[in-house]
Design goal:
The chain is mainly alpha-helical. The chain is 81% helix and 0% strand. The chain contains 9 helices and no strands. Helix 1 crosses helix 3, helix 5 packs antiparallel against helix 6 and helix 8 runs antiparallel to helix 9. The termini are far apart.
Length: 158
């Protein structure tokens, strides 16, 4: 229930995940990687959960200006950034689930806003994936369109 939620606990959990304490971040990333290759409903739900974990954790840390520090200074931060950008682009490109594509774009946008190395990874092909997601969103899915627009805006700030 809402009265049992504690913002400090959420911040602590986000830091534990993103700093990969006890390899949590790497385990979730491995699970994401394994499930994006599958086409069954359970795998899509797991992808959704993994993306939600990363999106929520990065959003919370971004609000406190801690995400950049984690991505730059923590062990494996640069490797995580590179892999997460690649996985996010793949999820958006495949678009098996528009909801997962939206979450992947949220993650990508947060990475682009907080990491120079993330901006360096995104090439013209990846940019076209986001542009195509925006076009698809304009026709069929408002939230996908808005997430793609935010991601494109982050790309323009390079």
């Amino acid at each position: 229930t809402a009265d049992k939620l504690n913002p400090q606990s959420a911040k602590l959990m986000s830091k534990l995940i993103m700093r990969s304490s006890f390899d949590i971040r790497d385990i979730v990333l491995s699970l994401l990687d394994a499930c994006i290759r599958e086409t069954d409903e359970t795998s899509e739900q797991i992808v959704n959960s993994c993306l939600t974990i990363f999106s929520n954790s990065m959003s919370l840390l971004c609000d406190e200006k801690n995400l950049l520090t984690v991505l730059l200074n923590e062990q494996g931060g640069r490797q995580f950034t590179e892999l997460m950008v690649q996985k996010s682009i793949k999820i958006v490109k495949d678009c098996k689930s528009t909801h997962n594509a939206c979450l992947a774009l949220q993650c990508l946008c947060l990475l682009l806003k907080n990491s120079i190395s993330a901006r360096g990874i995104v090439d013209d092909e990846a940019r076209m994936v986001v542009v195509n997601a925006e076009r698809f969103g304009k026709q069929r899915h408002f939230k996908l369109e808005k997430e793609a627009q935010s991601t494109l805006a982050a790309l323009r700030c390079q």
